[in-house]
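Hey L., structure's done. Input below.
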Amino acid sequence: MPSGTLGDSDDMKRGGVLLVCRMKFTHDLTRVLERNAIPSWRDSEEVKLLPIPAHLFVSDAHICNQIESIATEFGDVHFHVYVHDVESAPSRFADPSGQDRWEIRFSGKASLPVMEQKLHVSLQDLKLDWLSDVENRLRVYVRREVNRERIANWLGQFNQLKHRWVGERLLQALDMWPGHRLKDALRITRDGLLGFHHICGNPELGKNYDFLRPLVKNELDALRNDNPQSSLPEIAEIHEAIAVGTDNNILYVEDGLLTGTEMESVLRALLGKCKPGRKPKTEPLSDPTLLSRKRIQFRFAVTSNFGCFMLNRFLDAVGLTNCEVSFEYDNQIHVLTDTGMEALENGTFWVGTDPVDGSSSPTRHISRPDLYISTPAFQNMTIWRDHAQQRAAIDFCRSIGGQLFKHYHDRKVEMKEWAPWDQRRISECSLGMRGFGLALAYAHSVPKSSIPLFWQSGSVTYRNKNVKRKIEWQPLFPNVT
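Output:
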């Protein structure tokens, strides 16, 4: 059933919720809606908050007139009405027209927690609650269906460990990127492609390339059909575009630049300078100087301030001044605090081997992760409510995420893709690669900088109030690793 719909017939009204309150309760009830309703409730026709000045709130007739005004303005919505902090009987606020434009679900002086519980039921019944919104957003994940049952099973694991509230709030914090959002951010448009001879990806990156290539091809085909005479770039693999032909302007597109490691590895492979023990991300160029003789723009849908710094630093270090990093500032995640960015710039960020010298660095650590990393998934205080709950959620995710990342690390070592890391660096990644603590997912994958509870499976143990529990953790997003 579509969100907010009452019944199956086309002539049935959409269901909605109208919350009426005294002006002084506006802030409190706004927070109630932010915790329970769809994230877009402020712009929705189906969820309304109606504050009324105190001197008018004493009049049942005025309240009824205000409800009627909303019902008339949004005539195709049937509202469940909640009138907070009144003495009058619900029948005093019934729809006088007899057209069933609204129904009083509650009218009285219940406490805010009781009101919140009652309101949540209506929002859930009408699929106007945040969890229904999450379910709709996660349907775009292409590697396996993430439906309400899977979401419930994932939350059930938090419940077993007595931290269901953490799972629910992580879902609220989750930023999901469907294909059309990636396409828009990559600017696959006539203007965005102007002047480029080739648009490239790297098939060695697997599922990322497999998803983005048809996305780009479909857009190019549509642009060509719209104007067959227009000049548009050809799709090519990055190695092919650089090694073959005299065309000089290349656009390389990728979903994200978060740690910078993957993009650096691609460039090292092209230059024939892979780090020891690492599998090359593509074939080396027969003439590495070709890489410096092309104009190459690396364009990303999502970036971090850390990733952009590290890639630009690498380009400067190897003399690739012909390359530029392009991204939308609105889509950049500030994983580093201002202090962290300053430390990265002045050379005090790392303990251990410098990442630019080409050596393997399984023991390179961030010197002050508590000071330098912002953990973006935990920064929205509307979701986390207060600093005590924020801290408790981070501690829980570190405990479980550290164990899950160790499973991921051990598998990479077993497959001979990584040299073993020391325990400090493994622990550093308990909230995702480099401890970034992201709640980010694409339609085709989940970056490893996201919290491991989203993407990694394995046995975990957690002690809560002297009770130790062990479970087999299953990720929300299957088939990521």
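The chain is about 40% helix and 20% strand. The chain has a mean pLDDT of 92.

-- N.
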